[in-house]
């Protein structure tokens, strides 16, 4: 018997500019024990579908047409009191961020007992017993002891397990999971997905899994629904959809996923995404301002080393005390050594908290290292700060940041943002030349002409990241540090940005340091890769060698966690 | 999602924006804003509107003293719509001139407070460390005294320092100084908080990587991003500055009876209240209430409209 059936639902948000329709005419069903994936990029309406089913739409959002049936009974027109009773008891919910979905002022035990008692009426003692069983079921060791702990005493993965325990404690028949693993590291993600799969099989619960991540979809879903621009593009068995996509959008989406198994030159061109002007050599780089005077009498060492990092350490003070012996420190980066040769792309990969961004910030001078040295071109630059001489070196090194929404000053026009480094370093003769350079730079990164007079909020994430890259190029750097440049972007936009970075690198002969937690992206971008964990560099090897034959046990572990996307077209036999 | 037709003009953007829309759909906001503006205009053009010039000693006739409003007592004079005070001055004219002084003092001290507060808040938030601790401890100390007490203190010290014959002339500047010094703390605290959030954002780091000095980053990049709440605080502070001015004048340490502000007028009338001459104090009091209340309500609305999280 069908557990849940959504029939032609449309969801609208009335506003003063008229009805904004977030979901148009979407139909699907879920069977008991089945995991249905809903995949799509940001703004596709996938989360809205999930929220609408259990009536948690942000007001004034509402289902404007269509019906939702739960076990044959229509539920979208029930009075709100009835709907409330369904939540938790019949339909459970798992949210994205385990940090915020638990009450920080109550122990895990209190939260579980309260919820169990509400739904199952087992009394205090019975509920407590049940809570311990549940915690055991979701894989939390020593459940009796952990019952007394507060959410902040759990790690991210453990907390998400508790959230899952809360979701299943009313013994629901359907669970809606909204990006349940997005905030977690790969190794934890894998465990959580396994747990969810196991629960569905054991208890015959149906699940709707909303995510943007094709890896997650491939890993555990039985069927998948692909959404784009508020509409359902395609729905079917996961293997078929991923292996043999019918719809154009699904095809281009799948082709944009970085391949973990093989390095390719460029990502295939993806249609169906935001407008970007295609540039084929707008100007001759050698004659242009961008190609000129990029050395300033600074030389690369004879063996081609552009950056040399020796015994680099960084520690943050975590608790202060008057007594030196009582102060406690966190070693964010410990004894890191590496060197980067001119023209190569050097990757640093690691999970969150491994110290990879800290290295980038020490190299650029945002942080002063605790000890160790950073040698750039022919100068030691870590110890000294803002002298004019060092500024000339710093100018040779620029950075592209992770979050395109906070890396651009929202009060400045794009023109002024990109022009600022040029004006500050007096790199152009006059205002007119600066403006011409800015226009060329914007064209180079694929932005249209009218972009320069606009403000950052008028652009999408991918376009903002392009502007951010244009600003980084405006000092004519030789060395570009990219700190997770695409982790905030959708996968199709990511493919475009990565292509752009590759093109720029070959055109401008840039050296790049590329930091990411995403192994397939690293494989596509980097020549050599360093693997980091807890502030230490565990392995440094050529990219191909690392992916084919990892030496360190942690590298092997990380690689084993990469989502297997072998069901994708043309991948199983490569 | 929202497509504006004229994106270039800032003014048309404002009229298309949410703030203007909310304003038009909130009767409270429209009414309080209209009354505030009406008060401002009446005060600003007091010289043109007021039937009498209260500073012109020749025009004042002591025979007209203590006349009740013509609609309330038999011996009222139709020239004096709200009656006259003990020296024969027209109350209505007095209110207009008094409001002018009150509003002038209010506006100037808000602007001075804001400038001091923004500068110190930016410095404390961006530099951090000892400078931050020092500025914020001073702010804490000042906050532990009521604003009116600090204003009284400054007023008293200034009066002690200045020669006696200059008191009346300089009273208005002493008032402005006293009120603005007592008001900078909230600006500094708000700005400091926002700066501490903003300075960890990536656009600030991008500026540092480019090599910009902290002075430029703080003023050109961070400052424009933290100014929004200032308009709200400023509006609400304007109301409280006017009240502080009135309180000081009422206590007799503010404006002198020859150049009366609203507070002075209320004080003058207060002495005659028990002898039955209620109009001398009632009308300036009502004017003060209307002015402060409308500014305050508008400020509250503005705060809610700019910060949807509070709703």
Oligomer: heterodimer
- What global shape of chain B is seen? globular
Biggest sheet details of chain B: none
Measured on Cα atoms, how large is the radius of gyration of chain A? 26 Å
What is the H/E string of chain B?
HHHHHHHHHHHHH
CATH architecture label of the largest domain in chain A: 3-Layer(aba) Sandwich
CATH topology of chain B, what is it called? MetI-like fold
CATH classification, class level of the largest domain in chain A: Alpha Beta
What portion of residues of chain B belong to β-strands?
Answer: under 5%
Q: How many E strands of chain B?
A: 0
Number of strands of chain A: 20
Low-confidence stretches of chain A: none
Total number of helices of chain A: 19
Describe the protein's topology:
The complex is a heterodimer of chains A (574) and B (311).
Chain A: E1 4-15, E2 18-30, E3 35-39, H1 46-53, E4 62-70, E5 73-74, H2 80-86, E6 91-94, H3 108-120, H4 123-137, H5 143-146, H6 156-168, E7 174-178, H7 186-203, E8 206-211, H8 214-220, E9 223-228, E10 231-237, H9 238-243, H10 248-255, E11 305-319, E12 328-341, E13 345-350, H11 356-363, E14 371-376, E15 379-380, H12 388-394, E16 397-400, H13 414-424, H14 431-444, H15 461-473, E17 479-483, H16 491-508, E18 511-516, H17 519-525, E19 528-533, E20 536-542, H18 543-548, H19 553-561
Parallel strand pairs in A: 3-8, 3-9, 6-7, 7-8, 13-18, 13-19, 16-17, 17-18
Antiparallel strand pairs in A: 1-2, 1-4, 4-5, 9-10, 11-12, 11-14, 14-15, 19-20
Helix pairs in contact in A: 3-4, 4-6, 6-7, 13-14, 13-15, 14-15
Chain B: H1 10-16, H2 18-24, H3 27-44, H4 46-49, H5 91-127, H6 129-143, H7 147-161, H8 167-198, H9 202-210, H10 214-226, H11 228-250, H12 262-272, H13 279-306
Helix pairs in contact in B: 3-5, 3-13, 5-6, 5-8, 5-11, 5-12, 5-13, 6-8, 7-8, 8-10, 8-11, 9-10, 11-12, 11-13, 12-13
């Amino acid at each position: 018997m069908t557990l849940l059936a959504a029939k032609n639902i449309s969801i609208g948000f009335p506003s003063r500019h008229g009805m904004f329709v977030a979901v148009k005419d979407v139909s699907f069903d879920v069977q008991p024990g089945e995991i249905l994936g809903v995949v799509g990029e940001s703004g596709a309406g996938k989360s809205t579908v999930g929220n609408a089913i259990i009536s948690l739409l942000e007001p004034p959002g509402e289902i404007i047409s269509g019906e939702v049936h739960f076990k044959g009974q229509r539920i979208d027109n029930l009075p709100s009191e009835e709907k409330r009773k369904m939540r938790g008891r019949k339909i459970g919910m798992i949210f994205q961020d385990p940090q915020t979905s638990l009450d920080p002022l109550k122990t895990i035990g209190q939260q579980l007992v309260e919820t169990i008692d509400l739904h199952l009426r087992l009394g205090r003692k019975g509920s407590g017993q049940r809570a311990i069983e549940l915690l055991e079921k979701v894989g939390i060791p020593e459940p009796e002891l952990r019952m007394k702990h507060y959410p902040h005493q759990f790690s991210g993965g453990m907390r998400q397990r508790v959230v899952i325990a809360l979701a299943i404690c009313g013994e629901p028949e359907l669970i809606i999971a909204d990006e349940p693993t997005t905030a977690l590291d790969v190794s934890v993600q894998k465990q959580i997905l396994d747990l969810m799969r196991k629960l569905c099989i054991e208890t015959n619960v149906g699940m709707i899994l909303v995510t943007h991540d094709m890896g997650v979809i491939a890993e555990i879903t039985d069927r998948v629904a692909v959404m784009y621009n508020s509409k359902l593009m395609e729905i079917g068995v996961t293997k078929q959809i991923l292996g043999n996509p019918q719809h154009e959008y699904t095809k281009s989406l799948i082709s944009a996923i970085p391949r973990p198994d093989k390095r390719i030159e460029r990502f295939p061109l993806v249609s169906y995404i935001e407008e970007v002007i295609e540039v084929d050599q707008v100007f001759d780089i050698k004659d242009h301002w961008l190609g000129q005077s990029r050395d300033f009498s600074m030389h690369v060492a004879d063996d081609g080393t552009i950056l040399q990092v020796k015994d680099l350490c960084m520690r943050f003070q975590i608790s202060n005390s008057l007594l030196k012996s009582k102060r406690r420190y966190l070693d964010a980066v410990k004894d890191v050594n590496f060197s980067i040769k001119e023209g190569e792309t050097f990757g640093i990969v690691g999970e969150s908290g491994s110290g990879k961004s800290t290295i980038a910030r020490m190299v650029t001078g945002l942080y002063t290292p605790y000890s160790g040295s950073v040698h750039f071109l022919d100068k030691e630059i870590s110890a000294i700060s803002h002298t004019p001489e060092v500024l000339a070196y710093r100018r040779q090194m620029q950075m592209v940041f992770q979050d395109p929404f906070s890396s651009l000053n929202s009060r400045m026009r794009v023109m002024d943002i990109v022009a600022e480094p040029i004006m500050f370093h007096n790199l152009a003769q006059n205002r007119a030349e600066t403006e011409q350079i800015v226009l060329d730079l914007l064209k180079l990164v694929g932005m249209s002409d009218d972009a320069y007079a606009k403000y950052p909020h008028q652009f999408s994430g991918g376009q903002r990241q392009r502007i951010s890259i244009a600003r980084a190029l405006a000092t004519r750097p030789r060395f570009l540090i990219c700190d997770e440049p695409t982790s905030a972007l959708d996968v199709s936009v990511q493919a475009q940005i990565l292509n752009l970075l590759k093109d720029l690198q070959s055109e401008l002969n840039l050296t790049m340091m590329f930091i990411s937690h995403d192994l397939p992206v690293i494989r596509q971008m980097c020549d050599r890769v360093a693997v980091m964990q807890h502030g230490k560099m565990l392995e440094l090897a050529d990219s191909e060698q690392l992916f084919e034959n990892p030496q360190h046990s942690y590298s092997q572990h990380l690689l084993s966690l990469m989502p297997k996307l072998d069901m994708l077209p043309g991948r199983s036999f490569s | 999602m929202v497509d504006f037709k004229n994106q270039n003009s800032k003014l048309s953007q404002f009229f298309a924006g949410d703030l203007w829309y909310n304003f038009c759909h909130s009767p409270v906001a429209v009414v309080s804003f209209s009354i505030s503006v009406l008060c401002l205009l009446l005060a600003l053009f007091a010289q043109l509107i007021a039937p009498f010039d209260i500073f012109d000693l020749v025009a004042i006739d002591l025979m007209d003293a203590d006349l009740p409003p013509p609609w309330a007592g038999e011996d009222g004079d139709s020239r004096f719509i709200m009656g006259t005070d003990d020296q024969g001055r027209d109350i209505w004219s007095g209110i207009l001139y008094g409001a002018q002084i009150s509003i002038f003092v209010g506006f100037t001290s808000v602007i001075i407070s804001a400038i001091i507060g923004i500068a110190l808040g930016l410095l404390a938030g961006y530099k951090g460390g000892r400078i931050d601790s020092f500025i914020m401890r001073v702010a804490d100390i000042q906050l532990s005294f009521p604003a009116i007490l600090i204003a009284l203190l400054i007023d008293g010290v200034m009066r002690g320092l200045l020669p006696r014959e200059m008191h009346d002339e300089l009273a208005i500047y002493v008032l402005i100084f006293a009120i603005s010094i007592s008001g900078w703390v909230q600006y500094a605290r708000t700005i400091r908080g926002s700066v501490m959030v903003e300075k960890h954002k990536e656009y600030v780091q991008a500026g540092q990587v480019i090599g910009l000095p902290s002075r430029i980053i703080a003023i050109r990049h961070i400052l424009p991003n933290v100014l929004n709440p200032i308009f709200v605080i400023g509006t609400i502070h304007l109301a409280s500055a006017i009240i502080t001015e009135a309180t000081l004048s009422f206590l007799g340490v503010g404006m002198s009876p020859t150049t009366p502000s609203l507070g002075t007028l209320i004080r003058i009338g207060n002495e005659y209240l028990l002898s039955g001459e209620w109009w001398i104090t009632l009308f300036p009091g009502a004017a003060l209430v209307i002015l402060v209340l409308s500014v305050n309500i508008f400020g509250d609305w503005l705060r809610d409209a700019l910060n949807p999280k509070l709703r």
